[in-house]
Amino acid sequence: MIVTLHFLALLSSTVAWGRGGVIGEGRNGTAGGGGDRCTCEAFLPSSTFPVRDLVVVEQTAEEILHKLDLEMGKLEEYEIKMTAYVEKILKLTVEIEEMEKHSSDYNDADFADMKVEIKQVEALIKELQASISGSVTVFESLRVESTAMDEALTRLEKTYDKNWVLVTRREYVKIQLQLETCERRHDELFNPNIGSCAHTGIIRVGKPIVSHLNAHLNAAYKYGGWGKDSKPVPDRESMYWYSGYTSASIVDVRFYTNYQNLILRNHFQHHNLHSSWIGTGNNYIIRDNTLYYQINNPFGLAKLNFTTMKYESRVIAGVSSRFSYPNSINQIFDFAADETGLWVTYSTTESGGRMVIAKIDEASFGVEDEWQTSVYKPGVSNAFMVCGVFYAVRTVDIQTEELFYMYDTNTKQDSYISVQFDRFQDKFSNLDYNPTDQKLYMYNDGYYVKYHLWFNHTVEATAEPSLVLISDKIL
């Protein structure tokens, strides 16, 4: 009797066994001494799956999830402390106001006691600030680890059967969602002013938060954009979009129901643009489920509503096609959206290459007003709008960008600033602000990258008791 075993080996070598023990390595063998034979045939794949690499990634995922659970617990503690401190500050504010109104009723000892209470609150707030800074550092570290994990998974997906890494990819999605939850809780606690323009501008840009490589799993798709709808229609508040290509063109758009499906590259809609609607350049945005972008024939603005599939185009007289951002050709029109509406920037022959800001009426798709800046477009790597204020960005070195110029359309005043931030990769083709979460979205050499923004907030007048400014160091 002869028994033949056929199997697919995932090991680097195989051993054939017979009745007498080991009889051959990686080849057929026959046991001696008897009539019965056991033949083992091994078929090795052309390349072996690196199981050890996958195990390392899975272990990393477990460690990151454990650290995230700890940080979530800390955020809950911060929230409790923050509530208690606010109540204490409000109580002190009322007491101080009472002392100011009836100062003759209080002696030096009363004022000394109040100073002691203020110092105690100040110490508590300093302690909380240190804890918050520690959590932010942990988040940034975990982002770096999760990015490295995603790169490893992407490499395995591109080289081997995706089913082998599907389970680990799901673990990566859990990490990304947990990080998103932590960051959202952090924003709610310490940056609760989303939607408010009661600030004097951006004072800091966070570290690059890298989601992963584009949906095509192809680093050659260096041109494109991604992000969220800046004015989402009902039931699409959590939707993300992506469009990428190997050249500075826009030929299609993919939509994802939420961040999880973006990470899993599981789109629910995919629109290929009609040949006559194909755009150029990379500074397009999606607002109110409508794509706003640049076309070349005729050279001008275009909009495509994905709800009605209605297409429109407009020509703006005087716009020059000579002036583009240096990172990509055909970056003539740059669409932007903020808390106040829809904008587009460009240069004209009359402005001599200096950038012009235009407010767009969304209903008529016409220009409402224009403002000319003093910044020369070829010296700008990209730009965006926040609360009616134009921000220009320039490249400092191979790793660093800088917000260096701002123009306030409300006051018609401009100024030079210096707020630096890091890139993930060398070049980027799209940078836009989204007012729904106050984040910057960058398409960076094929990767989805975003940034937290910090603003210099001013105190809004309200009917509620205002917080007393105990010390400059507290704020």
Structural notes for this entry:
The chain is of the alpha+beta class. Helix content is 28%, strand content 36%. The chain folds into three domains: 2-43, no CATH class; 51-179, no CATH class; 199-456, 6 Propeller (Neuraminidase). The strands form seven sheets. Strands 5, 6, 24, 25 and 26 form a five-stranded antiparallel beta sheet that branches. Strands 9-12-13-14-15 form a five-stranded antiparallel beta sheet, with no helix packed on it. The chain has a four-stranded antiparallel beta sheet with strand order 7-8-10-11. α1 packs antiparallel against α2, α1 runs parallel beside α3 and α2 packs antiparallel against α3 (166-190). The termini are far apart. Mean pLDDT is 78; it is low at 1-34, 39-46 and 459-475.
